[in-house]
Amino acid sequence: MPNEPNVTAIDALPASEARWIEFQKISWNDQAGKSRVWEAASRKTRGKSGVDAVAISTVIRHPNRSPSTIIILQYRPPVDAICVEFPAGLVDEKETPSDASLRELHEETGYQGKLKYISPTIVSDPGMSTANMQLATVEVTLKEGDKEPEQALDDGEFIERVVVPLDDLYSRLIKYSDEGKKVDARLWHWAAGLHFAKTML
Questions:
Q1: Where are the alpha helices (DSSP H) in 81-168?
Q2: N or C: which end of the chain has fewer CB within 10 A?
Q3: What is the mean pLDDT of the chain?
């Protein structure tokens, strides 16, 4: 039986040991002309596309089922919890965000589909990080009798995929949160937008 993941220590990370991120000291002038300093974290992996990462919202269409989407459950050490997220990943050095979205969806979930939309470059946490991303929408069309595909995970990746009817997504995320899981902000905002569009407009 797999072990439960857990944090065993938290230490300061010297800049010389950091493989994936670096701290930046940003000097800037505000609207009143006053000189200020801002501290930020920055990824070291940004490639030629200028985009750090992609996240993938999926719409699964089946002849006899309601439209569904795919979410993943994955332990994240910075929050010491299982996180509920969109499939997502970094854009490789010479890769486009569109190509990365289809690759990451297949690797993390096994599903393949058609890219229907990709967002402009958007920022993730601009008060603390230079990180950016694009949000892709991929349509997966299934036939009656199609089997669930195999994931293509890398060694050391432990990702559980969950297919959820779109009508149930908002309530499922609340249930996961009540269980102590952490819902990623991008997924929550997407699900809340769908829910509020149906209940408040």
A1: 97-109
A2: N
A3: 96
The whole-angstrom separation of Cα 46 and Cα 14 is 21
Domain count, the chain: 1
Q: pTM score, two decimals?
A: 0.92
Q: Which token pair is 144?
A: 């009656």
Q: Domain residues for 166?
A: 44-199
Torsion region of 91: left, alpha or beta (phi above 0 gives left; psi -120 to 50 gives alpha): beta
The closest alpha carbon to 77, from 130, 127, 9, 155, belongs to 9
- What's the pLDDT tens digit per position in 9-20? 999 999 999 999
Angle between helices 169-178 and 185-199 (to 10 degrees): 130
